[in-house]
Design a protein that fits this description.
heterodimer; A: mainly alpha; two-stranded antiparallel ribbon; 2 strands; about 0% strand; B: mainly alpha; 11 helices; about 75% helix
Chain lengths: ~325, ~290
């Protein structure tokens, strides 16, 4: 009972080694495949009954989960409140577009800064605790932002959400990028998804990333080595907050609307299950999880009113039978 | 002045629900090592079962039977879903109970309908006790008294019975308790059921005060988390105190600045965490 988290972290160290391996064929081929699929998605999605906005939503959820996974899967910080930074990014972008500017990039920049700095600011409050306690504090902080959004009617539109803004076309000198076009907006999203991936990928391959993984595997040992692990978890928290905020900013642009639900702990839980479904010890796990989750939710909510039970059942079954996710499952198969 | 008193008293009542929830959550967190997200689901279930039982056995019968039914369901849940998770990363128990909470909310909505239902308390309890302070009704006083009675019973159980001593011992060192030949699986099952029983009781009481909606548990669970953090993880008395404090604080805020009445409890939490990271009465070194 005394130190449950430290020992349990060693349950599946296999993913750690795989992710820190050099650029062997095993990591390059799947990545190329992922990018090829993402780049051609608008062309093959309709063949499977999908639509482009669904693809954009998958990318956005995937990006948020990818950011969260840096903290959750690689540093071992159990954040159950990442919707807060996602939502702050969305509200920041929406409010900028509504009241201050018509420039989409500027609004996004402000949104990302609001969400990212929010995570940076509240990180230190959480990192003093670990495990379950860490989770509880992150949820509670997230709910604080939720209630601010619900109650500050005059600014945020309260429970009805923020409306009355829209994404605007982007001008490069004389050229215009028409992001009202769903397909072009998909590529716009993909561009920022790629930036987010690049950030997380390069962090994971840097000494900093190795420190994160080491903290996950054995925090006590690192503390004995003299590392200020609180500071490192804080850094992971901040980076993942920035990535989640970027996803939130894109989400506001996708819907031309932000709802308090974008800040709610339910969405935080969704992000966590997305990471777990895909495999949280793997780089592409969160994206795969997002594909499954978004598609299943989209389908279920159109065929049954009891979709919540089914989503809940996914949570329960994933935990009981697929705790290391789909990619984690395949990875273990291959290594055996 | 009267409005302030009214809101403080109201906040105190809500604080009772937070405290009952937080006590159960705290119990389960301590010995089972699990944050039970589905606690709110059991609370709602307790309330709704009381609603359906009332025509048959009356309010008083439902008040007793419904929490025990909830506890029984808790026992079943622990056996089937929670037990496989002991000793694993806390992430998994969080996710599982989170999913369970969604399922329970959906089931309640399917079984009893999405719109709120009124829950009538006996008219003997409905009257105001004082002409001036009209808000002090018999039911509200009854609610406070019953909460304190239940809490007192819980502390007596933990202090004076064999099971209670074992639960307390298990909180500080489960391995040693197990080595002494005590069936810790049974102990944790009992503990879980007692926690759920408290949630069921809170559900029946809340039904009479706030009415029944499928989301009633969800809206009460988050403040209960805050109550635990403010009171300090690992301290039952702290959880109780935390619940009352944030309830009253929200009540006071309603008087002066209603828009901030939800946010104030999180501000209190943030301040407590900065000034005293382990909460008001938390144990040193727990989960640090």
């Amino acid at each position: 009972m005394k130190s449950p988290t430290a020992q349990n972290a060693t349950e599946a160290p296999s993913g750690a080694r795989a992710s820190s391996q050099g650029s062997s064929l095993q990591t390059i081929v799947p990545s190329l495949l992922v990018w090829a699929l993402l780049l051609t998605a608008p062309y093959w999605l309709p063949m499977f009954g999908g639509y482009t906005a669904l693809g954009s939503r998958v990318l956005i959820y995937g990006l948020a989960a990818l950011g969260l996974n840096l903290l959750l899967g690689f540093t071992g910080g159990l954040s159950f409140g990442h919707a807060a930074y996602f939502g702050l990014g969305a509200y920041g972008t929406g409010l900028m577009l509504k009241f201050i500017t018509h420039s989409t990039p500027l609004a996004m920049l402000v949104g990302v800064l609001v969400g990212g700095l929010g995570a940076t600011l509240f990180g230190p409050v959480t990192v003093r605790r670990r495990g379950i306690y860490f989770a509880m504090i992150t949820i509670a902080i997230g709910q604080m932002f939720y209630f601010i959004a619900v109650r500050w009617n005059s600014l945020t539109g309260g429970e009805d959400g923020l409306t009355g803004f829209g994404r605007t076309n982007i001008h490069f000198g004389s050229a215009v990028l028409n992001i009202h076009n769903p397909i072009l907006f998909y590529y716009f999203t993909l561009f920022f998804f790629a930036i987010g991936c690049a950030v997380v990928w390069s962090v994971l391959r840097s000494p900093l990333g190795h420190t994160f993984i080491a903290i996950r595997e054995n925090p006590k040992r690192l503390r004995f080595l003299g590392l200020p692990i609180g500071v490192y978890i804080w850094i992971a928290f901040a980076i993942s907050g920035f990535v989640a905020a970027l996803a939130g900013a894109l989400y506001a642009l996708l819907n031309n609307f932000t709802s308090p639900e974008d800040l709610n702990w339910i969405l935080s839980g969704d992000f966590v299950i997305i990471c777990v479904l895909g495999g949280m010890r793997t780089f592409w796990g969160p994206l795969l999880g997002a594909v499954i989750y978004v598609v299943v939710q989209d389908y279920l909510s159109s065929v049954t009113v009891n979709w919540m039970s089914f989503i809940g059942a996914i949570f329960v079954l994933a935990v009981l039978f697929f705790p290391w996710g789909l990619l984690g499952f395949f990875q273990r198969r291959i290594q055996k | 002045m009267e409005l302030l008193l009214f809101n403080i008293f109201n906040g105190f009542i809500i604080g009772m629900f937070y405290a009952l929830m937080a006590l159960g959550l705290s119990l389960i967190l301590g010995l089972n090592g699990i944050i039970n997200f589905s606690h709110g689901g059991f609370l709602a279930l307790g309330g709704y079962m009381a609603y359906s039982l009332t025509p048959a056995i009356g309010f008083w019968g439902a008040l007793i039977v419904s929490p025990f039914l909830a506890g029984l369901l808790g026992l079943l849940t622990e056996r089937i879903l929670i037990r496989p998770l002991y000793g694993r990363d806390p992430l998994f128990s969080l996710l599982l109970t989170f999913g369970l909470a969604m399922i329970m909310q959906d089931l309640v909505r399917t079984a009893w309908g999405a719109t709120g239902l009124p829950f009538h308390v006996p008219s003997a309890l409905g009257h105001p006790l004082s002409q001036v302070y009209f808000f002090i009704t018999g039911y509200r006083v009854f609610l406070v008294v019953l909460t304190f009675l239940a809490t007192g019973a819980l502390f007596a159980l933990l202090q004076f019975t064999r099971v209670g001593v074992r639960i307390r011992a298990g909180n500080s060192d489960l391995e040693t308790v197990s080595a002494l030949g005590i069936n810790i699986y049974r102990l944790r099952a009992i503990n879980f059921a007692v926690g759920i029983l408290l949630a069921g009781l809170a559900g029946v009481l809340a039904a009479g005060r706030l009415g029944l909606t499928p989301t009633m548990g969800t809206s009460l669970i988050m403040p209960s988390f805050v109550a635990i953090i403010v009171g300090g993880v690992g301290s039952l008395l702290g959880s109780m105190l935390g619940g009352i404090i944030i309830g009253i604080a929200a009540g006071i805020m309603t008087t002066y600045y209603p828009a901030a009445s939800d946010v104030i409890i999180y501000i209190i939490m943030a301040v407590v965490l900065i000034v005293r990271p382990r909460g008001l009465m938390g144990q040193e070194g727990l989960l640090e």
